[in-house]
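Incident review: delayed structure delivery

Summary: a single-chain prediction request sat in the queue longer than the usual turnaround. Root cause was a stuck worker, restarted by the on-call engineer. No data loss occurred. The affected request and its eventual output are reproduced below so the record is complete for anyone auditing the incident later.

Affected input:
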Amino acid sequence: MTFYTLQILRFIASLLVLLFHLNLIYSGYKGVDIFFVISGFVMYYTLFHRPRPTALKYLVNRCSKIFFLYWVALIVLYLVLPFKLDSSFLKTFLLIPGHDSVIGVSWSLSYELYFYFLIGIVVYLMPGKYQNFIFSLLFTLSSVITIINLTPLTFKGTFINFLLGPNFWEFLLGIASALLSIYQHKKIRPDIALLAASLGFLLLIVVAIPYSNVFSHVVYGPLSFLTVSFFAIYEEEISITKKVSNFSMLLGDASYAIYLFGPIFTLLVTPDSCFLKWIVVFSTICFSVVFNRLVERRFLTWSRKMIYNKKECA
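Output delivered after worker restart:
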């Protein structure tokens, strides 16, 4: 099942980040929190509630999805605004944690990769009977680290915080939202689910907490969890028209391109008026939709088939 409401949420999340980079919305960085929760939801749903891909396909699909568009964005940025290519650039190129984020949002991709690898290890290398226990243990540890970070005994700036801190906690909230949607949706009326999702989304949009504030994650994470969980539950109980589903897929599929190219377009144009900023928003969305349809989707399909076929012939 494709969750079309989550596709719309992905688009909104990328739009919030773009508006933040254009200084049109002060707290647009909350779009990253939404992305993290959706990623956790999608990964768990894909690996536990649908036919599971082989380990090779899982690894290739996840890495190609992240790196292809990221490397294209790096090339575009270098061609128009050359940056320093030195020994440290390898970390940036491979999204190693702590890399120089020449594209402002690339730090979050290091977390995405880490989460993909970790959940892949649990799913493909651990016995099935222990997997939910491992997720529960990780959630407990991450919750403890997140709570400690609210105190002077913070783990911020440490490798432990990268491994088990608030950003990882939001991925795990995504797994929890998938579990709620999969196993409890029959117990929740659609109108109640829609009300809860709408309330969570409204609060997520209107609440503005500085990213540097230690309470940022513990507010945006649960609100994202509430929004994602109950929109998914609502969608499981209703039917979506073909036009709505196609439109949501169009925007959702382009969200990653918007996320990456938005900061680049902002640097290129450096708009100094509100009108020009909205022109950048519109242009970024249009470019991302076209690039996703004509280049990204086709290249990923072709390259993945090439890799799978070579592996099968080996």
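Verification: DSSP finds twelve helices and no strands in the chain.
Action items: add queue-age alerting; document worker restart procedure.
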